[in-house]
Amino acid sequence: MSLLEVRHLVKHFPVRGGVLNRVVGHVHAVNDVSFDVRKGETLGIVGESGCGKSTLGKMLIRLIEPTSGTITYEGQDITALSHSQMMPLRRTMQIIFQDPYSSLNPRLTVRSLLKEAIAFHRIVARNEMDDYITELIRRVGLRADAADKFPHEFSGGQRQRIGIARALATKPEFIVADEPVSALDVSIQAQVLNLLMDLKDEFGLTLVFISHDLKVIQHFCDRVMVMYLGHAVETLPCLELDEQVRHPYSKALLGANPIDDPDQRRPLTILQGDVPSPFHMPAGCPFIGRCPDVIDRCRAEMPPIVEREPGHRVACWVANEDVAEPAAPAKSLG
Amino acid sequence: MIQAGQPHSEPILSVRHLTTRFRTDLGLVTAVDDVSFDIHAGETVGIVGESGCGKTVTSKSIMRLLPERVSRIDPASKIMFRGMNLATASESRMRSVRGDQIAMIFQEPMTSLNPVFRIGWQIEEALKYHTDLNRAQRRQRSIEMLRLVEIPNPERRISEYPHQLSGGMRQRVMIAIALCCEPDILIADEPTTALDVTIQAQILNLMEGLKRKLNTAIMLITHNLGVVAQVCDRVLVMYAGRVIESGTVHDIFHRPQHPYTQALLESIPKRGRREHGKRLPTIPGIVPSLHHLPAGCRFAERCRFRQDQCVDHEPELLETSDGRAYRCFFPITQAPMAPTIGGSDVPA
């Protein structure tokens, strides 16, 4: 069953310029993205800087308002909710940010920053507050005396644990983790990934895990959605990634990642050029500027998303050539 | 000392007992402690370790780029390059070495290029100091360099400013500046860390090609073990200011001797079905603060094989006959060991 259904989500940011500060154009951060997140699963979203993955993550919990499209959470279209109607959902939908240095208020102790959220959502009674905070801190692997320290007194990994405790404090069901381990050293990254894995099982969380590191996503997530320039170009189960991957961009992402074994050295996949600016979107497929297999049709028309197999969706004219004319878009986006 | 790759050739750079200290509000800290290694022409040596292990300070000590107000290279340190000891060389001497014979590229191409000068000017600056080329020749050479690092339309790009280029392009310009005088050694400090993975692949490929073309030795500083496995010949692993293990890239990845090296390799997420969704092996705890270093082995507190001996005494760097070295009383597999102690060829 789907906990979250996203349909045709679009975000355009206006760009202002000139002496009168008029809107001179739009950055197309997220373009017509649709997907489902099933209850209890972890969906990975991977892509390079500027592909719109963080914007998408923030839209899912309405930290950024979408330009158009719908987000349905447990059957309720949350894009239509007012600020006050959204409040109870803010408790169940939480986010963990990449940079624990800037996402924690430096002037609050760990106890007061956890208390803020707990008291606002009335998670526990006032007299149980201290016990609940102590338990939270212990659960994310910090010592009990951490409660009365300030964020600057912790290392990066410990700060990310505080960010996780902060997200867990309201007993959420759904968490967006936006690059939660990207700023951490590899040994600390493993500690935090393990913690997230344990908490997910213990609290039955549903996660959207955003990262630029395909290796982390492959290890940690059930399914992966590859984004390029605001478009979801391929979605498939992580276990099938190595063998079944079809989109040339996903292939390049896989092939550009060096393998951690000097005996398996191989020429890295080289894509020509840079990611184009989302301010000047190419006509047709967003990937044509760097794609090794462009055909004429790619320049003229945006490729439709085709469900090649249950759970494997690809948007590419060339990769989908073997599939007959695309069927009508599937009702449920597995 | 450490010999692999080309055992017969003389090393081009020979670092012995490099020790660099910083003055801080909390007292003196030793960021790099008795580090010794060699680099030969045409080889790529990787220095790996986590934040704060001293890998960047090592490279900046070699280039003498650390602020003299707060830092000091120990007078017993030797950084031998072409018969010169860079550790004690004069500033004017260093200026002729830097950028000409030893060049460096940094992690942040956004902040290491000067935003108010055109990129052509910034390449020509190095040529102006280190060569006799006239203005037209310098311009010609700059265009050639941009072409070499595969920047499209170099004739047009040369008169652009850094903000007009993408991150990957800026790193290419940095490489062009570093290589324009054909240095013997290129020090690359996290050259791809700020870049996307497809751009990282382009830059690694480019460095590999240029190394072959110019026979430049590369000292690659990184925390990305995948990058090390892909491009390095030999590897030094650093921990809390010390070299704790060194050897060929194959030895380090397949037969690590130090428990830290082994644990570091295990903690990388692996691809494939068997490990999918499993907990990752981790190293408990965090790196010790340089202000409060333990008396014994610096890794002892986090080590799974710790014995009493490790807490009380710090192991010496032991060299084995096959050109490896490690700093551990209880290495993972006991290899035949030569009874020499690290750096014994130079009197302390």
Topology:
The complex is a heterodimer of chains A (334) and B (348).
Chain A: E1 2-17, E2 22-38, E3 42-46, H1 53-60, E4 68-73, E5 76-77, H2 83-92, E6 93-96, H3 110-120, H4 129-139, H5 156-168, E7 174-178, H6 186-203, E8 206-211, H7 214-220, E9 223-228, E10 231-237, H8 241-244, H9 248-256, H10 296-300, E11 306-309, E12 312-314
Parallel strand pairs in A: 3-8, 3-9, 6-7, 7-8
Antiparallel strand pairs in A: 1-2, 1-4, 4-5, 9-10, 10-12, 11-12
Helix pairs in contact in A: 5-6
Chain B: E1 13-24, E2 27-39, E3 44-48, H1 55-63, E4 71-73, E5 78-81, E6 84-85, H2 91-97, E7 102-105, H3 109-112, H4 119-130, H5 135-148, H6 154-157, H7 167-179, E8 185-189, H8 197-214, E9 217-222, H9 225-231, E10 234-239, E11 242-248, H10 249-254, H11 259-266, H12 308-312, E12 318-320, E13 325-326, E14 337-341
Parallel strand pairs in B: 3-9, 3-10, 7-8, 8-9
Antiparallel strand pairs in B: 1-2, 1-4, 1-5, 5-6, 10-11, 11-13, 12-13, 12-14
Helix pairs in contact in B: 4-5, 4-7, 5-7, 7-8
What does this structure look like?
The complex is a heterodimer of chains A (334) and B (348). Chain A is an alpha/beta fold and 334 residues long. Chain A has one domain (2-314): P-loop containing nucleotide triphosphate hydrolases (Rossmann fold), CATH 3.40.50.300. Helix content of chain A is 29%, strand content 24%. Chain A has an 8-stranded mixed sheet with strand order 6-7-8-3-9-10-12-11, with helices on both faces. In chain A, a hairpin with a 2-residue loop joins β4 and β5. In chain A, α5 runs parallel beside α6. The mean pLDDT of chain A is 91. Chain B has 348 residues and is of the alpha/beta class. Chain B folds into 2 domains: 13-101 and 184-341, 3-Layer(aba) Sandwich (Rossmann fold); 108-180, no CATH class. In chain B, the strands form 2 sheets. In chain B, strands 7-8-9-3-10-11-13-12-14 form a 9-stranded mixed sheet, with helices on both faces. In chain B, strands 1, 2, 4, 5 and 6 form a 5-stranded antiparallel sheet that branches. In chain B, β5 and β6 (84-85) form a beta hairpin. In chain B, α4 (119-130) crosses α5 (135-148), α4 (119-130) packs parallel to α7 and α7 runs parallel beside α8 (197-214). The model of chain B is unreliable at 1-6 and 335-348 (pLDDT under 50). At the A-B interface, α5, α6, α7 and α9 of A face α8, α9, α10 and α11 of B.
